[in-house]
Amino acid sequence: MNRTLMILITSFLGSAVLVVMSPAVFSSDKFGANHLKADTLAGAQTKVIKHTADTDEMKLILYGKDLIANTSGYLGPKGSVMHISNGMNCQNCHLDAGTRPMGNNYWAVYSTYPKYRARSASKETIVKRISDCFERSLNGKKPDSSSREMKAMVAYMKWIGKDVPKGVVPKGAGISKLAYLDRAAAPNTGSVLYKEKCAVCHGAKGQGIINTDGRSFIYPPLWGNQSYNDGAGLYRISTFAGFVKDNMPFGASHENPILTDEQAWDLAAFVNAQPRPHKDQVNDWKNVSEKPIDFPFGPYADTFPEKQHKYGPFKPIVSARTVK
Ligand code: HEC
Ligand code: HEC
Predict the structure, then answer these.
(1) Does 169 reside within a domain?
(2) Nearest residue CA, atom 43 of ligand 2?
(3) What is the CATH number of the domain that holds 97?
(4) pLDDT tens digits, residue range 121-146?
(5) Could you tell me which PROSITE patterns the record lists for this protein (predicted)?
(6) Residue among 56, 82, 75 at smallest CA distance from 138
(7) Which domain holds residue 264?
(8) What pTM did the predictor assign?
(9) Claim to verify: residue 111 and residue 225 sit in the same structural domain
(10) Which segments within 189-265 are labelled E, that is strand?
(11) Is 71 in the pocket of ligand 1 (CB under 6 A)?
């Protein structure tokens, strides 16, 4: 798969080479060699850094990268270290171990955390944010904050973001925001598209395809028991649509997408209409007015029904919120 071209770690004779798409979008010369044109996604440059994995710090960073890429092998149902997650890998959603432009990368993690997040209505550390993805996206339990595993993932994110100045979100970080459609997203249209464009890898029932060793997925599930739960970020239709538009079918990219915006919204509606594990979210969104427009569970600060918050149309909700 072409992701191996963008990030690969080879270890031999105790040394490792990390090739990483790294964020470098700084317009100021004070960042010297990292200076790049600010307005291209190619703000991501390929950095080749040779490291000997013999320092403790480098070992920790490389272990962190491995945990992101092969989470299930270590922490999944048949994991070698602990059994705390559902069989998915962080990399299933944070492509190329969280370094891919518009592939839900980690470029802005070290520069922006700790930060206030409305879901918990509190200032969250990187540890808290990683724990969230364990409890929601991996439908599991969080590793202890003092564990080597948590320390390794934090060290890896710090390493990825080490050239990004505090507070800066590099262009190409995270997930795209697509424009809202004028209509509600349509699960029925999405169902037809799913069969055509997704089922070959993710399965007719969204169940994915498991590796012969039974320890991890070759193609991860999109719904059902082994998928992320309904408290995960991807369960918001705008997040799913933005991620899929830029990254799926596998091989698509922000600059060379395969789906149109409409197709991405309809696919998101179809997938979000399927069953998945439930998470008790009574403690989320303490300030109801901070709840995102496309969060599919009430209560809301407006009078639009849950269904409209789940599938749209979103424009009337946006204008009702701005015209108070
Ligand atoms: C099912 C998909 C999925 C999986 C698997 C997943 N994540 Fe995430 N993660 C997301 C989404 C989506 C977001 C962004 C949510 C948003 O924008 O609201 C996110 C956000 C994050 C962030 C914050 C990024 C930022 O810039 O604010 C971190 C850190 C993170 N995830 C770590 C992890 C780790 C570590 C794992 C594995 C243990 C993991 N994630 C597994 C979907 C996933
Ligand atoms: C050629 C195979 C292939 C096709 C076709 C494909 N995907 Fe994927 N998809 C993948 C792989 C592989 C991953 C995990 C990437 C990784 O681990 O590096 C993935 C990950 C995902 C994820 C995040 C992880 C998860 O399981 O939730 C979503 C969402 C997704 N795909 C949606 C889609 C949709 C929607 C389509 C149809 C438009 C699609 N994919 C078509 C291979 C494919």
Answers:
(1) no
(2) 250
(3) 1.10.760.10
(4) 999 999 999 999 999 999 999 999 99
(5) CYTC (PS51007)
(6) 75
(7) 187-322
(8) 0.90
(9) no
(10) 209-210, 217-219
(11) yes
